[in-house]
Amino acid sequence: MRLTQEQCQTFRAPKVIALTNQNGMKVILSSLGASWVSCILPLATGKRDVVLGSPNMAKQMEQGVYLGSIVRRVANRINNSRFTLNEQYYQLANNQGVHCLNGGKHSFSHRIWGIFQPTPQKAVFSLTSPVGDQGFPGQLDVEVSYELTEDNQVVIHHTYQSTEACPVNLANHIYFNLAGEDSVRTALEHDLYIDADQYLPTYMDGIPTGEWYNVADTNFDFRQSKRIGRDFLQDDDQRRVGGYDHTFILNNTLTDGLQTVATLGAPSGDVRLNIATTQPALHVYSGNNLLATSGKTRTYVPYSGVVIATQFPADAINHPEWGEQYSSIAFPQQMYQNQTRYQFVF
C-alpha cells in the first residue's frame, strides 16, 4: 500500500500540481490536506472554476472550513468526542464544543501529505497518522488518489490500513458552485437529486439523534431533482443547524461506484455533476457557516458552495445498532478501499 521512498516525499512547503485531459479540463491539487483546490471546465462561454478554494496556501492554513481537503480520521461528528471499542474507552480531541468534528483540532486538512504523480492525469497522496493521534488508537496509513479521465470524470480513491481496530471515515470536503467559484449564484440556486429514502435528523449541534427518518413528505426528499433552496429552512431539522447539514442513507443497490447516486445541476443548467460511490451514505452541507472566508476571487459567505461528501453515516461508531454495513470500524492489518466518481457534464 505504501509508496516507495523514491516515489513519495514529504515537503516542508505545500506542493501544487495540475491534472489535465485532452478536452482542456484541469484539476489543481495541493499536498496541504491532499486538497482539491480548483476544477476548471472549458465551457463554450469560457473557462469556469467550479470548486471553492483559498487564494493561497497561507490562507488555506488559516481557514477552518476544510476547503477541498481530506478530513480525518473520522469525517463529520463524534458525539462528546468519545467512543468505546472492544471494551476500551477512548477520549478524543474536541473542536466543536464537547464534540469531535472531522477528526479533531489538528485535522488531516492542515497536514502536508506525501505526493507522487505517476501520470499527467493522476496524483497519489500519502500520510501516516501515528498511534494516539487526536486520541485515536493505532497507526493509520492512508493513500488518496485523484484521477482525471478523458470523459471528464474525477475519480477519488481512498486506501487505508490500521494497526489496531479504529473508526475510519475519510471524506473529501469539496465545496461546489457549478455557476463558478467567482459567481454570486449560491448553492441554494442549484438543483439536487439524491437516491436516498432515509436521512439522519440531528440535535442543535449537528449530532445525529440515532433515528433514521423516511424522506417521504419531508423537505429532505430529493428523489426527484429540486432546487436546494425550495424547501430551505422550512423545518426544525434544518433550523437547528442553519440549513442542510445532514447525512442521507443511499439506496444500497446503487453503491457500486458506477451508478449515479446524486446529481447537482448548475443554476443555468449548463453544467451537471453526477456522483457515483461505493460508500453507503453521503452528507449534504449547504455552506451554512462560510462566514467571511477568503476565497480565490472573492470572500465566501454562507451558501457560496455546497458539499456533497460520500462517507459512512455521522457518529456511526456510537451506533452499532445501525449494522455492519454502516460501521466505520477498520480492523487491524486489513486493507480498506472506497471510491467516488465525479462526472462533469457540460
From TrEMBL:
Chemical reaction(s) catalysed: alpha-D-glucose = beta-D-glucose
GO cellular component, one term: cytoplasm
Pfam families: Aldose_epim (PF01263)
Residues noted as binding beta-D-galactose in the record, renumbered to the chain: 76-77, 173-175, 245
Keyword annotations from UniProtKB, A to Z: Carbohydrate metabolism, Isomerase
Top-level taxon of the source organism: Bacteria
UniProt-recorded Gene Ontology molecular function terms: aldose 1-epimerase activity; carbohydrate binding
Transmembrane segments: none
Record-listed E.C. numbers: 5.1.3.3
Gene Ontology BP terms: galactose catabolic process via UDP-galactose, Leloir pathway; glucose metabolic process
Record InterPro entries: Aldose_1-epimerase, Aldose_1/G6P_1-epimerase, Gal_mutarotase_sf_dom, Galactose_mutarotase-like, GH-type_carb-bd
Keyword Isomerase: yes
Pathway participation: Carbohydrate metabolism; hexose metabolism
Presence of keyword Isomerase: yes
PANTHER family (UniProt xref): ALDOSE-1-EPIMERASE, GALACTOSE MUTAROTASE
Protein family (similarity comment): Belongs to the aldose epimerase family.
Name under which the protein is recorded: Aldose 1-epimerase
Species per Swiss-Prot/TrEMBL record: Providencia rettgeri
